Amino acid sequence: MAKEDEFELELGGPEYTVKVHVPVSLASQEDPQELAHRIVQHHNLPIYMHPKLSESLQEFALQSNDAALKRPGRDLLAALTSHAAAAPLNIAAFWQQQQQQQQEEPESSEGEEALLYHSFVHSREGLALLRLEHQYSKEVAMLVKRRHAAILSHDAKQAAKLAEAVSQSCSDAQVNALSSRALEASELLHAEWESSITALKEQQLRNFRAVVREGRVAGAASGADEEQTEGVGAAEDAPLLQESFTIHLGTQLKQMHNLRLIAADPVHLCDYTSHSAAADSQWWLPPQRIQTSLELYGRQLSGLVNLVDDRVNCLSGTKLEFGDVCSRATELHFPELQDQLAHIRERLLPQLCRGRLNPPAPDTPRREDKLQPGDVYITRHSNLSGVHVVFHVVCDDSVNSSSITSRHPVILGLRNVLKVACLCDITTLSLPLLLVSRLTEELSAAWCQRRAEIVYKCVKGFMMEMTSWGGSEMNTLQFVLPQNISEAQFQALAAMLPSIFRVSNPLMAA
């Protein structure tokens, strides 16, 4: 039952005096003005007394609440002073108990966990921890593979049932009922598998954090034994088409950069399962995982530019493929991809609706509920191969145009990506050279030449701006071409690069 305090107030003057005496509940959140109005109406008081009564009620509520908050502290102090001789012992015992509880149940912040992991993975137990991470990934990947197989089998059975019902000349109502039941069964199957995968990932995450706090992997070999038993996989299968260059940029103080041109699928580069030459071996460990983990909390991060549409989700196109790759391994350090995208939608889209980001030109209509070409949102990852940060650059069909200029929003988005990478210790960055993920019949060889030339020149200008931005140097920049590009087109684009960038040539003594 809520505690009530007695409110007393004398209103009026010497000729007309009114004494107000009412109980006021401290637990209620009633407005003092409304309560004053009710008192005036109930007791038929003059209306001019309402302001004074309202002000007094508000002041009384504040004082009563303040006294109620201070009362437990005063009671404790009174009890402590009543046993003055035993007080020091009680205080010492209390804080000792609190310290023991904190030691038994440590709560590490994100920064503390990062430091613990960084020191752990660089210690002699580091390989054992990486092997544990890889084992976790294999377990999740196997469960995801089983889920895909079960869903495909279920869909095939339901399609066969529907085809049989149609062939037997069933009525439309029967076919619709069968289709509805099939949809419900499919949704239930998806939910069951998703629940199983989520439960496995949560268990792995709890076990991983406990291992990092403890500083040792249970059952792992130590010292020289571990070095002899641990196996490290061979280097990844190199793309069929690739070229590397070393360039110098700058006028007075020249800086060296490594440029790489490859033909590959960007999503394929992020997938550990694509480097599985010896994945069935018990002790096999991908070298990409070692490099990614060692640099996770360092100052040499790796980034990837992913071209997406204007919706922040993983439901179609390359976003669906990227989300599938992320789901094959537990995210042990950052929120899951879906959680990061949900946070982005929660924080970013309301600002777009208020028109606070990228205000359009006066003659350009803007859809306030969606991102625009050139907008970028960022996700963090520890379960991808050779990638820590992914820059999702929004683009539309205008990137297929042959009249794209250096002021195109997607080009300016790349400038923002390079600036963020420079300021955030991302020293390796992969970006699509042609600003498309796949070549079609409409994109001719001449179109590829023009597009590569403008992107080369713009990126060169952005890289020369880096000296004024500060931050880390861009050590390696990787231009990614669509996987279905022909060898002749690749060689032509590779020959164009030295004519735009200043390539370092070694001096040969005669």
What is the count of DSSP helices, taking H or I runs of 4+ residues?
14
Q: How confident overall, as mean pLDDT? A: 79
Number of strands: 9
Residues in helices, as a percent range: 40-55%
Give the oligomeric state: single chain
Please give the domain count.
Answer: 3
Name the structural class. Answer: alpha/beta
Following the backbone from N to C, one meets helices and strands in this order, namely EEHHHHHHHEEHHEHHEEHEHEH
CATH topology of the largest domain: Leucine Aminopeptidase, subunit E, domain 1
Low-confidence stretches: 222-230
Residues in β-strands, percent? 5-15%
CATH architecture group name of the largest domain:
3-Layer(aba) Sandwich
Query: Tell me, what is the CATH class of the largest domain?
Result: Alpha Beta
- CATH H level of the largest domain: which superfamily? Leucine Aminopeptidase, subunit E, domain 1
Distance between the termini: 100 Å
Describe the strand arrangement of the main beta sheet, using strand numbers: 3-4-9-8-5-7-6
Q: What gross morphology would you assign?
A: extended
